[in-house]
Model the fold of this input.
Amino acid sequence: MPPLDPKHRSRALTDGPERAAARAYLKGIGYDDEALSKPIVAVANTWIETMPCNFHLRALGAKVKEGIRAAGGTPMELNTIAISDGITMGTAGMRASLPSREVIADSIELVCDAHMFDAVIAIAGCDKTIPATVMALCRLNVPSLMLYGGSILPGHFHGEQVTIQEVFEAVGEYDAGKITEEELAELEAVASPGAGACGGQFTANTMAMAFEVLGISPAGFAMVPATHPRKAEVAADAGRLLMDVLARGQLPGDIITKDSLENAIAAIACSGGSTNGVLHLLAIASEMGVELSIDDFDRISERTPLLCDLKPGGQYVAPDLYEAGGVSLVLKRLKDAGLLHEDAQTVTGRTVGEHADEAHETEGQRVVRPLDDPIKATGGLAILRGNLAPDGCVVKLAGHERRKQSGPARVFESEEEAMAAVRARAINAGDVVVIRNEGPAGGPGMREMLAVTAALVGEGLGEEVALITDGRFSGASHGLMAGHVAPEAAHGGPIAIVRDGDEVTLDVDARRLDVALSDEEIAARLAEYSAPERPYPGVALAKYARLVSSASLGAITR
Done:
């Protein structure tokens, strides 16, 4: 890589007599001539006080800045928004979650371009902040890296480790009369015991692992829990590392390639990660101009064994993975299986294969299975097509054994309608629940259906009911379900024409999602279908609905 002038961008902002006014502003808030003579480095933080995932990131940002200063840079911190998926789940507010990914990326891009920072470190926590920050780094393509704030520690309830997943499922147990209101309140009080992102291999930890494997996050940093004593040290190290990335002139475009994206997909498949990884890696590929399709996810998952025994389908949580050996242990398994593009570069200046070779496996650990004893022979994702999903849909395979279900459709025009039926115990074993008009444009915002899926599990129907939707699922969802059905109902997708009682078949082995109707009947129904009226969603979401692409393309806006 050719060496960069360390102030390759900020000179235009700070140097020369004509920049006296800019320097005057900056001196007034504490930056002296010495500080302004150094590379100016953005610390793009997603700190916010509305959720545990990002609550602690202001303190991490201070440590990152210490590391940057120690390595010869001048940090300037900027902040952006964040939306909690978990807190807004099951409400209209959850429509803002996926659109916030675009707003976060846009805001970081705008500030960093306008202020001509020489390098950028992004600090992320909750689900959408992680891909959003990396999307911005792709657009800027200046020396940069992403630091994950880390997982929450598990709670403890009646002698068992618990996460927020158990609380969502307990709502269904309460509705079914399996637990009392007092027991629900007791669980609620202990399930989220501090700062950090949701503890299972839900979307946050899935994307944190994926981006460490991708190479844009430093090796060994992602799985350090949010409140672990080592986290402050990791943050300062990340600041120092960024200055090294700047000195080497390494850019995101040197790191994010087809090979590294395939490595990240393999990690998601191997770990039983969230289906949201499909959306987010498609978006990253688009931002970087790398050709990637949903079929790549199916191809890679089919050849990758499921090895990580992580919630929601397994037993363990992210801090357990950290103690077992972390992401490098997953890399080692992938390398040993011949599934890793070993020469892919990382922000450390070393290859992903070299980091795989450094893996330390804790003796006796059972979080990451050996290659000769996988949980399943193939990975945790599949892409299906059929007359209900001509452009594809995503199925998560970890955490259940069913690979096929046929049954009568129970059709709902919104998540709220479906949740009301679940809570009224009006869903029967064998039903195929269809939730539509929850896609990127139709929602708008493509809400996650965790409240519905968790309530079904809590009522004991998790292995008896299938669910399909043009919306999304939480990384904490499990059971037989197909999300991201495309085209969505609002864009004339066939999911719009399913009626109660129609026979729907979800067949993983055949890679099909079909309704037992002729092409002629589907076309006739589409001709007469009109989406239900909904309240105006507000200016921001209305703009998003007009600009957003299909889920099969990553639900990006242009």
